[in-house]
Amino acid sequence: MTKSISKMPLPKLDDLFTTEEERKNEKLEKVVDIELTKIDDFPDHPFKVIENDEMYNMRDSIKENGVLVPALVRPKPDGRYEMVSGHRRKFASQLADKKTIPCIVRDLSDDEAIIIMVDSNLQREEILPSEKAFAYKMKLEALSHQGKRTDLTSTQVVEKLDNKYSVEILADEVGEGRETIRRYIRLTELIPELLDMVDEKQIALSPAVELSFLNDEEQYAVLDCIECNVATPSHAQAIKLKKLSQEGTLTADEIDDILSEEKPNQIPKIKFNATRIRNVLPKNIEEQKIEDFVVSAIEFYGKYLHKQRQMDAR
Q1: Angle (nearest 5°) at CA 202 between 198 and 205
Q2: I want to staple 33 with a disulfide (CB 3.0 to 4.6 A). Which of 100, 203, 207, 234 is the partner?
Q3: Residue-level pLDDT at 147
Q4: Domain locations along the chain
Q5: Are strands 81-85 and 71-75 parallel, antiparallel or unpaired?
Q6: CA 83 to mean position of chain CA atoms
Q7: d(Cα 52, Cα 237) in Å, to the nearest integer?
C-alpha cells in the first residue's frame, strides 16, 4: 500500500539567509531620501501651496538645516510615489534647489490617505474657507466609506457608525459644529471666481452659502453684477437671490436690481478731525449748519477747479 507523502513547503531564500530580527526590521518603516521628481501631488489636494514670505522662510531653513520632519508618501503601482503629507516641504525643497526629500513610505488605502492628508493640514494656524470646504468634504466621504453614507450637502444622514453620525465624528475631530461643517461643504458648489472672493474676504460665509444654491449660469451673472456695481451681496440679498432661483424666476435683471440696492453697511462713513475743521469754519456758524457749509465749500471749489482746467486748456 502506497502512502501519500505530504509535501512540506520549501523555505524562501530570504528565510535561509536572513535572521528573524533582520526580517522584522525589513517590515519597519524607515526614512528614505526620495527624488522630488518621483513624487506626485495628492489628487485634488484641497490645500493651497503659496509662494509667500512664509514659504521663503521654510526654503531658507531647508537650505541651512535640511527637512527636519520627513514627508509621508505612499507607493504607486508604476514605481512612483504619491505625496500624502508634505506638499509645502516638497515645494520649499524645490525652491532650495534640493534634489531629494526625506520621506516615510507607507502603504495606505485611498480613504486612509485622505484622512491623514486632511488631518495633517488642518493643524495649520490659517486655513482658507475653500481649503476647509474641500478638505471636510473629502474626509467626510472617506469616513462614509468606512461604515456609513452621508448626504454631504444636507443634514440628512442614514445608517450609523459606532452610534455616531460620521458628520458628528468629523465635528468632534475638527472642533466645528455639524451645521458649520455643512455650510463649509456647501461652498464647494460655488464657481471658482466666487469662491476666491470668499477666500479674499470680499464675500462673507453666510451670503456665500446662499449663493451656492444658484446654478453656474446664475452665479456667473451674479459675478458680472458684482464687478459692475463694485458691491458684493449681503446675506439678505443672497437669500432673495436663492429664493428667486428656486422659484425659477431669477434673471440677470433681477440680479442687477437686487445687488444695486443700497445697503446700510456699505454707506461710507467719513471721519474728520473736528478741531482742524473748526479752525477753517466761520466763528459763529451753528453746529447743525456745518455739514451744509462744508458741502457748499466743496462744490464751490469743484467749480473753481473746472474753470481753471478750462482756462489752462486754451
Answers
A1: 45
A2: 100
A3: 56
A4: 26-108, 109-189, 191-278
A5: antiparallel
A6: 19
A7: 35
Residue carrying the nine cell digits 440628512: 156
Q: What is the pLDDT of residue 209?
A: 96
Among candidate residues 224, 207, 150, 216, the one with its CA nearest the CA of residue 189: 216
Average pLDDT over residues 162-166: 54
CA 52 vs CA 13, 62, 92, 93, 130: distances in Å: 53, 15, 11, 14, 18
Alpha-carbon distance of 4 to 2, in angstroms, equals 6
Q: Which cell goes with 224?
A: 458680472
pTM: 0.67
Please state which CATH number belongs to domain 26-108.
Answer: 3.90.1530.10
CATH number assigned to the domain covering 109-189: 1.10.10.2830
CB burial of residue 28 (10 Å; 0-12, 13-18, 19+)? exposed
Residue 1 pLDDT exceeds 70 = no
Give the C-alpha separation, 193 to 189, whole Å. Answer: 12
